[in-house]
Structure formats: C-alpha cells, structure tokens
Design a protein that fits this description.
By secondary structure, the protein is mainly beta. It contains one helix and 25 strands. It folds into two domains: 183 residues, no CATH class; 149 residues, Beta Barrel (Porin), CATH 2.40.160. A hairpin with a 4-residue loop joins strand 18 and strand 19.
Amino acid sequence: MKNLNLVSILVLLMSINLVAQENASLKTRKVQVTFAYPIGSNGMSAMEYSNNFSFNILYGLNGGVNGAEIGSILNYNKGKVKGFQLSGVSNINTGYSEGFLLSGVSNICMDSTSGLFVSGVLNYLNYNAKGFQLATVNIDANEFRGFQLGVFNFAKKLKGVQLGVINYLNDGAEGLPIGIFSIVRNGHFEFELTGGEAIYSNLNYKMGVERVYTIYKAGFSAYKNNPVYGFGLGFGGNISISGRQKISIDLSASQIVYNNDWESNLNMLNKADFNYKYSVSDKFFLLIGPSFNVYVTEEKVDGEYGTLNIPYSIYTNEWSGRKLFMWFGLNAGLALKL
C-alpha cells in the first residue's frame, strides 16, 4: 500500500509540471501497452499519442484516449479522453473527458467533462461538467449539470440534483440539494414556531433552497400530566402563489419521548403538513393549514396504546404489539426567514 501511495504521489507531482493543454497534433495509435511509464510500446513519447485502446499494467502516462483504457493503478492523459476508462486506483485527465470513468479510488478531471463518473472515494471535476457522479465525495469546482450521489457533494453552481448526507452549494438557484444537511450560500434558512392538536409547541428549522429543504424538528406536549417530547427530521418545499403568499408542503417523522423515557420503544408520529404562508414582511410569515397524521406506537400507558392526546381517528389498526392511528389535524404559527 505504501508503494501504491508513493506511485500516486509521484505521478501527481509529475502532472503538475506537464503541459495540461491538448496537443492538436497528437499522433494516433490503435493499441498501446505500458508496464509503467516509460516502459511501454510508446516509450518516452507516450504523451504524444492518442490511443484507441490503452492498457497500463501498472500505470501509464498518455496523450489521450479515443476508445477504452484500462490500468491496474493509474491512467493519466494530458489530452482528450473519449470513451471508457477503468482504473484500480485513479483516472487523471487534464484535457476534456467524455464517457464512462470508473475507478477504485478517484477520478480527477481538470478540464470540462461529460458522462458517467463512478469511484470508490472521490470524483473531482475542476471545470464545467455534466452527467452523473457516484462516489463517497463528489466535487465540482465550477458548474455541474446533472446528478451527484454521494456522502458529500459539492458544486460551485448546480443545475440538477444532489443526493447525499451533506450537500454544499455556492449557487443553488437552479439546483435541488436533498440531504440530511444541505448548505447553500444565500439559500433558504428559516425558523418556524407552530402549534398543533397533538404536539402543542413545535420548533422547526429549515435549510436548503425554497424548492426543497431539510427540516429539523423539536416539539413539546403533555399526556396525563407527564411531559412529551418530539424529535424528528423531514423534507419539504415552498410553492410561490404571489409575492406575499406561499404554500409549503412538508413531510416529517418524529420519535415521541414520554415522561423522560429516552430508551422508549417505537413511538413515531409521521406528518404531512400543508400550510398557507402569508408574508407580513420580507422576513416574517404567518402560517396555517391542515395536516395528515399517521401515529405508530408500541408504548402503553394505563393499558392503552399511545402517549399523545389524539383528538379522533379516521382509521386504527392493532397488530403484533403495536397500534396505528390516523387523523387530520391543524397547524398554526409563525415563521422567521433568516
């Protein structure tokens, strides 16, 4: 592994000193085979050639690809790459890349790109790109058009979708970041304080963009003179009606904690909230609207299921030590946009 890391570092250092622009006069070879640059069929002149098929037994430094390239450790190309690249560790291209790039650790592209980028750890696209990215970490240092799927997704500007645990955007005007944490500069940040029929006081924090945001929920209520707390997560979005009016649609799930029993069984309140929001000022909103509630619980108090004051039920079902309740409710409150 140490030798592998050393090779990767040496090649990266070499790439800094190589000419990054594609040479318009690259020669063409149908096939090239390299053991480890410069030991190969193209020798020291390997970066003067664009190959239809390129096979790098350990690692190879080449001019370009127009077809397919396979390498056990590293594929490096200073010119245009079009087609399929497969590497056990890394694909590094300083010229335009188009096609399907698959690697065990990283795909690194320094010029504009288009296609499918799949790696075990990192996709780093330095310039404008479009397509699909799948990796633990996806980074586009400029504009990305398409779909990013990973634990951490970053784009300077997004025209598409991010789906991950953490999403970060400099410009989300045309993007949809969906994740546990979606951080968008100049995005949507809002606090809501609402009341409802089952959870009397609710504090919601929303972050993301207007069209889709993540909701962090905390609530307080009481049942049979004992405290009830709710903690949950959700997703939602705003639909603009006019300059002062919006409709928010939120889906959420909260675990209900009764009488400070923090190791309680399943006690989940699931909600779909449809709120009308009226802007009193640029930052302050009043809201009201109906909700649809699905409550599933394994908790019993005095022989009865549930730890919430449910006003009525339109449907109930009891099975395997748990019970389900459904009802329509009402929310009302205020919101502060940050």
